[in-house]
């Protein structure tokens, strides 16, 4: 077998949930979970564990789990594990840091958000700006192409901009903006770049320093792990920030940003998810985890691109179908509407056929409205590491039947 071979049958075997029989296109909302992740969670909960410490084996276990999870996320994002912050969700981490960062802003300051983004990377900044009297400036994407060109961000960045918040990939239409170019624009005026990597991290190999992002948030439940959120930033940058915290809790970085006791079982599951991703392609086990992630993500991208091309070809033949995922660089996440069919009806009819493809705006509220789809949104189909050709056929056949392209 070639060193980077992507064996989807082998991968699927690790997902007990797939044995229930549905074809899952709901990964952008939350992926299914491999057995190794579930086992890591269970083993943590059934082992002796207490708060982090060095005295008892239970304390040492908790400590080891935290250290290992930071290391795993460091490998996944190509960052210093000392700058990995765990939280309840990406939304919660963004609100938390928005409050912290904006405490230093005033009425002369500006923050830039984009209409391509999930509301989790808009509303925390809008509300934080409101609190301190700062101005919000909006970068618009082109609804026809789905592109957010760096110039659209540049047009609203001024020498008053303190922070630019933008997505690494739209969870609604998949668009992946040119982050290094946006970083250059932000940094040229001394602004920080906050990137929502929640959707992107599941599909493309992330190298946070290469993107130019100062902050990167993501959520392991989108990339085969458990439900929690992760923030990555350089430890030196985190040292300059002082979030609200309890008096007796650690003031060290990154702990000072982590409110309350960490969910150790979910951290163990996160490490297992990163390990699973590293082994998606059969790579040389003696290589570093980062090196295996590089190879595995290359194979994953190829796998998803091939399936996406097959799906798009079938969809193009469906009468009345409009596809909104048209950007040059994008994830395998498609948003469509079909003339004469309510997206919720399409979703329900697909569900009857054992195909899970949800419909809505998926909290990409501004994005959906900017596309002219209002709160209704469309039908979203997302590929995941376990998607296979049979899933694609079931989805396409289902849509053909429902939309009258096939009798
Ligand atoms: C692009 C994007 N950003 C943010 C979020 C919110 O993530 P969380 O549930 O971890 O707060 C989501 C969830 O769907 C998302 O897709």
TrEMBL record:
Name this polypeptide is given: Cysteine desulfurase-like protein
Gene3D superfamilies given in the database record: Aspartate Aminotransferase, domain 1 (3.90.1150.10), Type I PLP-dependent aspartate aminotransferase-like (Major domain) (3.40.640.10)
Aminotransferase class V domain: residues covered: 25-395
Pfam families according to UniProt: Aminotran_5
InterPro entries: Aminotrans_V_dom, Cys_dSase-rel, PyrdxlP-dep_Trfase, PyrdxlP-dep_Trfase_major, PyrdxlP-dep_Trfase_small
Organism lineage: Bacteria, Bacillati, Actinomycetota, Actinomycetes, Micrococcales
